[in-house]
Write a structure and sequence with these properties.
The protein is of the alpha+beta class. The protein contains 17 helices and eleven strands. Helix content is about 45%, strand content about 20%.
């Protein structure tokens, strides 16, 4: 399996990924823009715009006219917004390639953004906010971002606030599209059952021939500074306390990111990981607990999240901190290290079986890093990480003064929790 990257004169990047053994095809369009590119008065605008692109075009004047043709062939479709990207995709039987390309290119390039629909969709987004707020396990992550990054785009949250979303105008969204949904800022990826690569590329040229050729604006670089442990609490009368405990790490251009992925897997990336066995199986303190490493173009973090009984939250926090200290001071045994590597490689192989995952894998690298590594190249880098490198990276990030804790539960004195943030 191999991919091909084509750059048109306009700057539009096309990635094609032929895949054997599938009858499906995925069309994915990614824009290199997201919530980190927003001014405060349009915070949440990228996400609101993602919703609005499904509300109608001149050719397909309603949501039904967009949804129904894809539904009629059993297609699946959706969109997503991140801090540094926004994506629109459709997956169909490969014989409906033209339909998928036509629909996705149409909404990306020709959405009407009608004022009446905009006002209705603001209500939908606010209900989405309410849903996340009512799920403390999700909202603890919002608090985590706010704690780490404060009053800057990285700390405002992808979805914005009720006030910012209600204040966004149609003109602001149109200006945002004009500057950000441009040829140089867009990647179109087709993955799956592709029989003739040159034919596919010519089709993409046709469907995207009207894309604007403008220079997109850049986001502000995230500002980071920390000298002592950080803590943020949202007091709520809950039966469970949900917390995120972690540290700042490195951006996705750092060669240390592969060691970080292994550290994350060892700590809480598997059901046989250290924290899962300790917190859930041995101590019986949590139903869910997991550790992730998230990296962006200019920042990154490693965090463990769990939900525990209110009376046991201090014990759980100390138990997580204890495992952070252990991995920063003791080499991971070779057998455990190999298990983590095999886990990451195995998950990647399983994940990449579908055409939509293939499209995301290749297009996301291009949009964020402007360089694409194959699965084999990434797996080789994971395999090369040594226990000494794990120890060095863990020792660099897991220090008491770098710890951060976001928490939702029936508490109001953050000083009590800051005292726990030690090794």
């Amino acid at each position: 399996m191999s991919f091909k990257k084509t750059i048109l004169k306009s700057g539009l990047r096309i990635i094609t990924v032929p895949q054997e053994g599938t009858k499906t095809l995925t069309v994915l369009v990614l824009a290199a823009t997201g919530s980190k590119y927003e001014a405060k008065n349009i915070s949440g605008g990228s996400h609101l715009l993602e919703h609005m692109l499904f509300k109608g075009t001149e050719k397909r004047p309603s949501q039904l006219a967009i949804f129904e043709p894809l539904d009629a062939v059993g297609g699946i479709y959706n969109a997503f917004t991140g801090e540094e990207y926004t994506g629109f995709w459709a997956k169909t039987d490969s014989k409906h390639q033209d339909l998928a390309l036509d629909v996705i290119s149409d909404i990306y390039l020709n959405s009407k953004l009608e004022k009446r629909e905009l006002e209705k969709e603001k209500g939908v987004v606010i209900e989405e906010m309410n849903m996340y707020y009512d799920q403390p396990s999700s909202y603890a992550q919002n608090l985590w971002d706010k704690l780490l990054y404060g009053d800057q785009p990285a700390g405002w949250g992808i979805i914005g606030t009720k006030e910012s979303v209600l204040g966004i105008s149609r003109g602001q969204l149109k200006n945002y599209i004009s500057s950000q949904y441009t040829a140089k800022n867009t990647v179109v990826c087709l993955a799956g059952d592709i029989s003739n690569n040159s034919v596919v590329i010519n089709k993409i040229k046709k469907y995207f021939e009207s894309i604007k050729d403008a220079e997109p604006f850049e986001k502000l670089k995230v500002k980071e500074f920390q000298e002592k442990p950080g803590c943020i609490i949202q007091e709520r009368k809950t039966d469970q306390t949900h917390f995120c405990l972690g540290v700042r790490s490195f951006d996705l251009f750092s060669p240390k990111k592969y060691a970080l992925e292994i550290i994350s897997a060892v700590l809480g990336g598997m059901m046989s990981s250290r924290l899962f066995i300790k917190i859930r199986e041995k101590l019986g303190m949590a139903y869910y607990i997991h550790t992730i490493n998230s990296d962006f173009t200019d920042t990154g973090y490693l965090v463990t999240q769990a939900g525990v009984d209110n009376s046991r939250v201090e014990k759980a926090i100390l138990a997580v901190a204890e495992e952070y200290k252990k991995i920063a001071t003791e080499k991971v045994p070779e057998k455990e290290l190999q298990k983590a590597k095999d886990n990451l490689i195995g998950k990647m192989n399983l994940h990449l079986e579908s055409s939509d995952s293939q499209a995301t894998f290749y297009a996301m690298q291009e949009i964020l890093e402007k360089e694409i590594l194959t699965p084999k190249q990434i797996q080789d880098k994971i395999s090369e990480v040594s226990s000494s490198e794990i120890l060095k990276v863990a020792n660099e990030i897991f220090k008491p003064e770098k710890l951060n804790l976001s928490l939702i539960g029936p508490f109001n004195n953050k000083e009590d929790f800051i005292k726990l943030l030690k090794f």
